[in-house]
Amino acid sequence: MGFPFLYSFMNFLAHAYLSFGEEEVLIGNFIGDFVKGREMKHFPFLVQAGITLHRQIDTYTDRHPLVKEVQLHLRPKHSHYSRVISDIFFDYFLAKNWSKYSSLDLKDFSQQTYGLLTQSTLPFPDSFQRMLYWMKHQDWLYAYQTHAGIQQALEGLSRRARFDSKMDQATELLQKKEGEFEQIFLEFFKDLETFAQQTLSQLLIQDDCT
Q1: Which DSSP string do the residues of 151-172 spell out, in sequence order?
Q2: 143: which of 16, 52, 113, 208 is 20 to 30 A away, CA to CA?
Q3: Residue 1 domain-assigned?
Q4: Among residues 165, 149, 145, which one has the least CA distance to residue 157?
């Protein structure tokens, strides 16, 4: 999405959920922003499928009109960083509405995800290993469900930004327009879930055909 220095804080909960219980796909979905070029070939097929799925989810999200609608509210104050903030907001709404999407408790899902990643013997990039340590230590996936957790994420993003992003102030707009943004998220996520399911099915069919 054009912000490599911010990738390590963005919408991991959505990527984890949209792996649909496929463990190796989830791994790829998590490391998608950290694997470059030919490095992808170092991983098993299902992990490669997860990396591809991650990138297609990002592209679909960036182009979706409902996402752009939220970003229009953010752009006057946050400029191009509105794309990053909308990702964080949407993970907040996913965590907040978690029971609509999964029968597994969010805490349990988060811990299972950390366990899968930390126990893997795959050759993860060092940058991902460092990020994963802090993700688990601070329990980012579970923390997304609160304003405080989102504020912490946005403050971390703001410190890493190259310019004055004012991302640490974005929760003010979230509080003002939470109901409106939540309805947009719920409508958008139906589209995204369908897209991700179809995309993953196509990727897995490619494996069956080889």
Answers
A1: HHHHHHHHHH-SS---GGGTHH
A2: 52
A3: no
A4: 165
Residue 2: inside a domain, yes or no? no
Q: Which of 137, 111, 113 is nearest to 27 (CA)?
A: 113
Confidence of residue 2 (pLDDT cuts 50, 70, 90): very low
Q: Is the pLDDT of residue 175 over 50?
A: yes
Q: Render the burial of 61-93: b for 16+ CB within 10 Å, e for the rest.
A: beeeebbeebbebbeebbeebbbbbbbbbbbbb
Percent helix, strand and coil across the chain, each to the nearest 5: 80, 0, 20
| In a domain? residue 181 | yes
**Torsion from C-alpha of 16, 21, 27, 29, nearest 10 degrees:** -50
Residue 176 is predicted with a pLDDT of 95
Question: Residues 104-117: what's their mean pLDDT?
Answer: 97
Domain that holds residue 25: 7-209
Looking at the structure of the chain, the number of domains it has is 1
* Interval 68-106: pLDDT, tens: 999 999 999 998 889 889 999 999 999 999 999 999 999
